[in-house]
Design a protein that fits this description.
Elements: E1 4-8, E2 26-30, H1 33-56, H2 62-66, H3 77-94, E3 107-110, H4 123-146, H5 153-156, E4 164-170, E5 174-180, H6 181-206, H7 219-235
Keywords: Coiled coil
Biased composition (Polar residues): 1-10, 17-28
Protein name: DinB-like domain
Length: 237
């Protein structure tokens, strides 16, 4: 597990700490690029685990995957899963292989590429594709750790999360932006949470399934909930 430091906002006086209704003033902060990588990898795997746990339970089959939503017209569970997976897959496809990892050339990424995948109609294929995405993420960062001692001092200054990416987008004009692997991995995580949040009413209200409180909830919201719970407990002491 990564080591973290607790950062504090000095602008709030100690006597205001319990009475303030604002957002949390303390947060866990990764200390090194390696810890940032580990944190991003961990949250990515956890987010992919949310739909995987649901699909493995057998509560959602092919019929539920393809059933049109009455609450969110034009969508289905399968479509949401395919779209969130597409973004992970496109980013993973853009990552360097072991033979090209040392290249200084920026990576190329385009989320507008249309992928063909049967996962939106098949629960078993969705499980396989999401598990594959998890494994590819593990391998990408495991390769990074394995190369750690072999890299030169210059290369060591650029861990995978800091590797440059040229992001292409159709706006409808074709434009390019500079980014990094870390930023894009965080983006696909937030994009996935968005689709999981849209799946939540379909699962709970249309299918009557009971979901974990964390399903489709952003990490920042979970931190805020924990903060508010801690404040409520502290106020009773």
């Amino acid at each position: 597990m990564p080591n973290y430091t607790l950062t504090h906002n000095p602008s709030i006086a100690p006597d205001q700490a319990h009475s303030s209704a604002s957002a949390p003033t303390s947060s866990l902060e990764a200390c090194t690029p390696a810890e940032t990588q580990l944190s991003l990898l961990s949250v990515s795997l956890q987010i992919l685990d949310q739909p995987l746990t649901l699909l493995r339970s057998g509560q959602v089959g092919d019929k539920e995957m393809t059933r049109p939503s009455s609450l969110i017209p034009g969508s289905s569970l399968g479509r949401h899963l395919r779209h969130m997976h597409d973004h992970f897959r496109l980013l993973l496809d853009a990552l360097p292989s072991s033979s090209t990892r040392s290249s200084t050339q920026p990576l190329l990424l385009n989320y507008d590429v249309r992928l063909r995948s049967p996962l939106e109609e098949s629960a078993s294929k969705a499980i396989a594709e999401l598990e594959s995405a998890q494994q590819r993420l593990r391998e990408a960062f495991a390769m990074e750790e394995q190369r750690g001692e072999e890299r030169s001092a210059a290369a060591a200054a650029e861990p995978l999360v800091q590797k440059k990416i040229i992001l292409k987008a159709t706006t409808p004009m074709s434009v390019e932006f500079e980014s990094t692997v870390g930023r894009e991995l965080w983006f696909v995580c937030l994009h996935a949470i968005h689709h999981l949040a849209l799946m939540r009413p379909i699962l709970s209200q249309e299918l009557g399934l009971k979901l974990d409180a964390e399903f489709g909830v952003a990490p920042s919201t979970l931190v805020n909930r924990a903060w508010n719970t801690g404040r409520a407990i502290a106020s009773k002491l």
